[in-house]
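Why does this matter for the project? Reviewers at the last site visit asked to see concrete outputs rather than summary tables. In response, this paragraph embeds two records directly. Each consists of the residue sequence and, immediately after it, the corresponding structure tokens. Nothing has been edited or filtered.
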Amino acid sequence: MTATQSITPSQSRRRYEWRVVDIVVASVIAVAVGVIFFAWSAGYSGIAAVTAAFPPLAGLYSGGWLIAGVLGGLIIRKPGAAIYCEVLAAAVSALIGTQFGMAVLLSGLVQGIGAELIFALFLYKRWNLGVALLAGLGAGLALAISENIMYKVEWTLDYKLMYGIFAAISGVVLAGLLPWLATRGLAKTGALSAFAAGRTADV
């Protein structure tokens, strides 16, 4: 009998249960990234002006709003972590005073779900670079779909498709690769010793 086969149902449940330290660290991550979200949103006006000739290019900037979900998922490694971190980070940016107002809460939920679905697809057992990139991709596609429906109704189909492609690329790089590198860096410092992410090499 292998080690995996010997795991009891109660042990399996405990692996997915949130501890107090999970909630605290996830909240700290979300608050910190929420401040980044606020700053990122402040820079959007300049990006919109630069991409005015071809608006879909702004999708390359969108990955900055997707970091919390992937980072939280990679570190906490529990169901709901991506959604929790993304929504809380969006709430923090809204409370600080982002130009997009409380609408960011819905965006955070949708984007968090996009990342969460990828982690769930791998049953919350795989946390390597490939999974991180896919989570960023999932969040990017979720962002593009929701924004095309809610904010870009007047755009032509080709514009919407191009925006989706650029948002997906941004999601992979900014929300997938960067959080994975950040998690590895934090693990090497010992800051994640209370988490599986700090004790394994597949972060």
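We now turn to the second protein, recorded in exactly the same manner.
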Amino acid sequence: MQKEWPTLACPSGNGVTFWSHEWDKHGTCSEEVLDQHSYFAGSYSLSSIKSAIQSGVGYTPFVECNTDESGNSQLYQVYLCVDNSGSNLVECPVFPHGKCGSQIEFPSF
């Protein structure tokens, strides 16, 4: 956890408060797909990412990846399509070209 999810707060703590906040505020939205351990894991399956997004918004996303210096797939962009008015999500008629590995990491900032 210290390596993959470090707290950058000042003064720096042991991370427990930060991790608790992240799970309570963001992680609980993924409870149907990910338990706490899976949420904080270093990588996620492409299918679980797409499934979580589709479950949340109701439309199929396209997930684009890039690779880090070690060749690991990293989440780069998520595409969803809107209608001509730009107001409503719709199923995308086509997706851009791109490829992700079966396991995807969230890049560190």
